[in-house]
Amino acid sequence: MNVVEVLIEGGKASPGPPVGPALGPLGVNIKEVVESINGLTKDYAGMEVPVKITVDAGKVDITVGVPPTAALIKKEIGIEKAKTDSSADYTGDISIEQIKEIAKKKKEGMLATSLKKAIKEIIGTCGSMRVRVEGKDAKEIQKDIEEGKYDEVIT
Fold first, then answer.
1. CA dihedral sign, ordered 121, 123, 124, 129
2. CB 63 within 8 Å of CB 49
3. I want to staple 126 with a disulfide (CB 3.0 to 4.6 A). Which of 28, 115, 131, 148 is the partner?
4. What's the domain range around 109?
């Protein structure tokens, strides 16, 4: 069994590096594998996606990971680059609903034990990216969540 792990821009895998050279010696149909990867990653267009390709006795299994939280936040609010300087202005604003969707995508890879905790973890990332949540600073919104002000939306 051979395992190839690569980072690929969603929907843009090609027979060239990094996929082709890694799969060439394994005797699989590279074109078919590339088409499968592109189909599985098309929803993540413009984002780097971790892809794991397992080849066992000629059988190919493709597992697609979830992009980093920061990449999902940037896509959700439509920005190219986040600001990390704490004296800088905010780079955008995101809703609790949008964060909830990101949390659902990321839940498996997170340490959080509940959706509420996963949402708070993502809001922490928003804070370091200088992104407001519901028009408020990340620390302020986390306090509101702790106090139960968003329980209706979160559950």
1. positive
2. no
3. 131
4. 69-154
